[in-house]
Write a structure and sequence with these properties.
By secondary structure, the chain is of the alpha+beta class. Helices cover 40% and strands 27% of the residues. The protein starts with 5 loop residues before the first strand and ends with a helix.
Amino acid sequence: MENNKIAVGLDIGTTKIVAMIGRKNEYGKIEVVGIGKAKSLGVKRGVVSNITQTIQSIQQAVDEAESVSGLKIENVVVGIAGQHIRSLHHSDYITRNNADEVIEDSDIYNLVNQVHKLVMLPGEEIIHVLPQEFKVDSQADIKEPIGMYGGRLEANFHVVVGQVSSIRNIGRCIKSAGLNLNQITLEPLASAEAVLSQEEKEAGVALIDIGGGTTDLAIFKDGIIRHTAVIPFGGNVITDDIKEGCSIIEKQAELLKIKFGSAWPGENKETEIVSIPGLRGREPKEITLKNLSKIIHARVQEIIEHVYLEIKNYGHETSKGKLIAGIVLTGGGAQLKHLRQLVEYITGMDARIGFPNEHLAGDSDEALSSPAYATAVGLLMEGLEKEAKEEEVVEIVEEAVPENDPEEVEKELESKVEIQRKPKKKSFFEKFTEGLKDFLDNAE
């Protein structure tokens, strides 16, 4: 694969908007060539609430990333979260016309396409259709049905649904910022790409991404996504509580949380006190760290209990659904001191903090491997993945040429290569490969 393939991940969060430009190096690791971030003003709880401000913030982040990298950004992969996201399970099947031929990509494509046509509640649309296990005729629990014989192909799907208006608003912001929306992805799925290992996904793991406005959850088991949820509060509610509880302004509350905050109140002595300058001519305020961590503890506990309820609803307590690899915490909120211990204490599951450095090139900037950038790194990976898929298609065309009479093949392929460079959906690829097979058979 050529090295000049770049992609851009755009993480539109409640606290910050991050644009990350990157490409793959020769070892398949991701090299970040530019990053820009801006304070996010128009987003509440993961949903765009002020279009104009969001457009400005996106432009600011993109401009910064462009000036760092010297590249022009056109297409972006964007993450979506927010309280309007819900997921459901659905199973569907297709009856194949010809059971004597093996199952191909196109059959799976038809099946997924059929699920995309499901009728949702008014105002909702499907964002992802993720196949879990397949069933061919009466043989169940098949991970990869391609290449098998069978007349009836059935699958269980994990379907992620979101509000049309929220998705459109994001699209509108991106268009108005002068960008193309290449792909939209559920944020917890992107974060999972960046921080989870394949072994963890196989063993069973819950990824908790604690952002500013939302806490996202993605549960994997046997290497397959099993459950996703977006809980509509995150780090910002902790800051709000500190602000109210200590009667200080938001900026001070945020700083207190980052610098001195801890999720475990037993940690601090009564005597540890922070003095905060008063507003204009007022007396400074004195706050004990013990009180601070009590406030934080109460709120964090609530967030974790919410998430743990989702994990139990998925069926973690059944022997079949047990998450052996426990919990991985990521997102900006995962930087809170002693959070891991509190999570282990509340859930009784093993926990670790997830850093998105596994897929980054070795010489990357330290700051990039902060959990706060997990979603951006994941979105960037999705973008590069998509680029690579589109390139494969072109390569397949070119490899097929030398077999037969070159001139004839050239003519046939000229027109097709053109289409191939911009495949919209997989189907181009399939129709084309089928066409190519027939053509080569006849040419013999």
